[in-house]
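Reading a protein record of the kind used here takes only a little practice. These numbers are not coordinates but entries in a learned vocabulary of local backbone shapes. Here is one such record, which you should read through line by line.
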Amino acid sequence: MLKVVQEEVTGCRRCPRLVEWRERVGREKRRAFRDCDYWARPVPGFGDPGARLLVFGLAPAAHGANRTGRMFTGDRSGEWLFAAMHRAGFASQPASLHREDGLVLRDAYVTSAVKCAPPDNQPTPEERDACAPWVLRELEALPRVRVVVALGGFAWTQALRTLRDAGCSLPVPLPKFGHCAEARLGGGLTLIGSYHPSQQNTFTGRLTPAMLDDIFAAARRAMG
């Protein structure tokens, strides 16, 4: 079922603005990647089908996953994320450069709220909602998930919406996003918030490797 969802995601053309942008980026390319063949399609999640941990980002980076075809692969955010997941035992190697680099996720699955790279990393509400069914289907195809790590406030909000749509009971009032925020949800699920490993957070020191390690240590504890 998960493979079917992944294949269907890559063929999606629901959002004209995102289709135009992702394909234009793939044609014009960044100078450093001028010899690369860009993926320039929607990017499905990847990882262990039996995962108990779901890592949930915002969207593919224009010259990262939109180029390589795998989430958090080939960009600075991914360098931070997979290094931390490797230290925590969730990834077989600390770096992810391209789809065929041998990276294997263990007990973890990585995906995003929006499947296409949006201009300025800002999807519209309509684009967000158009992707929501894909995210829900991914979650339904991952029946062992017990912990969701949301990278950033956008992912936190979308994770709550997706879990609600999947039938998970949520606390009232809804839990607020914060780094290391933890929310116990229905069905034994735990939602953990983390600052996104974007350059605006890592370059400024708002997010450090130790802070990211704290997130995956908390995920390990919640998984039991």
Remarks:
- The CA atoms of residues 42 and 94 lie 25 Å apart.
- Helices lie at 2-10, 16-28, 65-68, 76-87, 125-140, 153-165, 199-202, 209-223.
